Amino acid sequence: MPYGPTRAPKGGKVLRYAEAGLGKQLELMDCYTQADGLKTFYVKHGSGFPVVLFHGAAPGASAQINWQLNIEPLAAAGFTVYAYDQAGFGRTENPSDLSIEYRVTHAKAFINGLKLERYHVVGNSVGGYIAARLALEDPRVDKFVTTTSGTLAPKGSAESQALGQKHSEELREYVPSLENMRVLTLGTLFRKDLVTEELVRARHEMSIEKNAEAARLRRGVKPPRPLFDELRRLTNKTLLLWGAQDRGVSVERGILLFGLIPNAEFHLFDQCAHWVQWDQAERFNRLVADFLKS
Predict the structure, then answer these.
(1) Is 274 a catalytic site residue?
(2) What pLDDT, in 10s, does the model give residues 254-286?
(3) Among 112, 190, 191, 236, which residue carries the largest CB count within 10 Å?
(4) Looking at 45, 120, 204, 274, which residue is catalytic?
């Protein structure tokens, strides 16, 4: 079932379908809720121990796009999956404060509204920073997983910093158009066969109108505080998933991050760029499900 640029209903909807080979019905619900006063879009799927997914911050980022290849498999593995659009992204309203610090506040409000007793966190890119903040600050968080995250990882060598700076400039210079989104997505993914017209159009749709305005205003906000000292005290079991061909965040930085976090695992994928959860979707889903169950 695709998670493309379909319009969400005003209230919410529930879809049930048979998962192939499993002989059971899985439930997909997409709806809106209020989180810190913002109308917030999210998807809920499956049943079992809760897992909350945090997307990244590149143009066109949203829960249904970034996690398109992962929501169903993780639900089928026995989890209740919550994937929401962060403040200023996707179908969630734009806040007056567009900082990452506010996105952490909004994430906490969203999760408090779900009334979860315990939950796992899985982040993608900048979403890894938000997931890490929750792991550090919310005792209800069990395990922490993140894909390649330049916002979270140490800066590394001059070469790594130059790579990250170049990638950041490319993101800031993005002007919404289908062709520009195609070019951006070709850089996001190693597997060029995944860069379909459907994906390009879906990301483009999530990069225009109110989301384009939010992206423009985010250029002026200060970066979030580093977590390097705090991560040394992180007690949650942690899984780091890195792409060897990431054009913005070097492998060196992933290894440095791994060195900071006690009780962490580090998996490096060849033929994989920034979206590990897309380039290596099948392996990602299996590794994450097994790790969260362990």
Answers:
(1) yes
(2) 999 999 999 999 999 999 999 999 999 999 999
(3) 190
(4) 274
